[in-house]
Amino acid sequence: MKARTGSIVKRKPRRKGAKATWWARVTYVDPKTGKRHDLQRRGSNKAHARDLMQALLRDIDATDGQSPRHERKTLAELCDYFEKHYVKAAEYVEGHKVAGVRSLATAKGQLSVLHDYFGASQLRSITHGDVRSSGQRDWHKRPGPKGNGQSPALIANSQCCDACSMSHSAKDGFSETRLPQATL
Fold first, then answer.
1. Helix 75-85 to helix 104-118 angle, to the nearest 10 degrees?
2. How far is it, in rounded angstroms, from Cα 80 to Cα 87?
3. Same-domain status, 166 and 76
4. Which of 69, 85, 109 is the last residue of a domain?
5. Domain that holds residue 57
6. Averaged over 164-175, what is the pLDDT?
7. What integer pLDDT is reported at residue 42 of this predicted model?
8. Residue 46: pLDDT band by 50, 70, 90 thresholds?
9. What rounded mean pLDDT belongs to the chain?
10. Are 75 and 105 contained in the same domain?
11. Is there a single domain that holds both residue 54 and residue 120?
12. Torsion angle in degrees (nearest 10) through CA of 151, 163, 73, 135
């Protein structure tokens, strides 16, 4: 069985008077499960459909078929995954931190801010600009530890945590690699 294939198809209109549509179709075998998957994207014309097909093939090759499995995931699901796998109490060996985070409260607080702001958004729809602007919108109105607004340092630290969690998730195959790598 072939590992992956791609094609462009022109489909007949379903209704009278409608135009024919161009579709990009990619079939691949998931290396972990051995199951065949079929992805289809509608293009505006033949050239656009070809570009979509090539982009899907590149995406599958770059992530070993992991990215299409997670393309409809939300940031809330990513936050839960990150908290489960990375937000743990620090483990020290001979005075050096080898796993976990030093401050659980800070990491969980930053994840809750992310979860509240982007929770229902799909990962593919979040851009670098969205992450940057998230730190500039009404954060001064959110209650801080002393009841006043959150400090600019906390906002910047939270944005670094956002970028770190996204880069970890890309390495784990949870999301595609086009997510922002740094925000500052």
1. 170
2. 10
3. yes
4. 69
5. 4-69
6. 55
7. 92
8. very high
9. 76
10. yes
11. no
12. 30
